Amino acid sequence: AEERARFREMVRRRLQHEPVAYITGKREFYGLELKVNNRVLVPRPETELVVDEARVWLKGKPNAKVLDVGTGSGAIVLAILKHAPQTTGTAIDISPEALDVARENAATHGLNTRLTCRVGSLLQPLQEGEVYDVITANLPYIPTLDIAGLAPEVRREPVLALDGGTDGLDLMRLLVSQAATHLVPGGRLVLEIGAGQGDSLAAWMINHGWNVGPPIRDGGGHWRVVSAGRNAV
Question: In the chain, count of helices (H) and strands (E)?
Fold first, then answer.
């Protein structure tokens, strides 16, 4: 009877458009089972492209440092650390509750000794001169006016993790501006973007002293990840 009641409760939550991952409390990402709740965005398959690209730039750098901004459940940074045993990571999120989830996931996968979590907005928690080999981010990139038209499931996720301002790129441009002084020479910035945002973000970055790699596309053919380095001054 208890089992039946639990099942009915799950069905009720699903009928109210709650994401399945919130109901089950977990989501698989890059081979890791991660805890998720309504304080974090549910990790998406296309975000695995960010991990793939980061790993390319970490190859052959045994003691590399990676920074994940807007980490949420910790999906990106934990997947990277899992596959790069000598790499250490820092995860930043504006939400202390999200960082609790990331910490728990790190502990579950035995990665907590290699991950530092800091609360704050974008790169504000970093010290001057603190540098990383790779900076990754899956920041909110949905234009504010598009939020209302999202699928009901998506609207149940934290709006803080979705709203990217007028054109969806507000936070991205801010991060790019801040990241320039926090990468090692030859370091890489790897950003997930929304479909259709690649050209305008890449053009803006090129104007601001970045060299942008070829588009990394998702299964639907959309430019999904921007990978860039600083031009040598």
Answer: 8, 10
CA 141 – CA 78 distance, rounded (Å): 22
Output the domain CATH number for residue 104: 3.40.50.150
Look up residue 147 and give its DSSP letter: G
SS3 211: strand
- Which segments within 43-172 are labelled E, that is strand? 65-69, 88-93, 115-119, 132-137
Count of structural domains, the chain = 1
Question: How far is residue 47's CA from residue 173's CA, in Å, rounded to a whole number?
Answer: 19
- Give 71-129 pLDDT, tens digit per residue: 999 999 999 999 999 999 999 999 999 999 999 999 999 999 999 999 999 999 999 99
Cα–Cα distance list, 67 to 18, 81, 109, 140 (Å): 30, 11, 18, 17
Between CA 150 and CA 141 the distance in angstroms is 13
Segments forming the whole domain that contains residue 135? 2-230
Give residue 4's pLDDT.
87
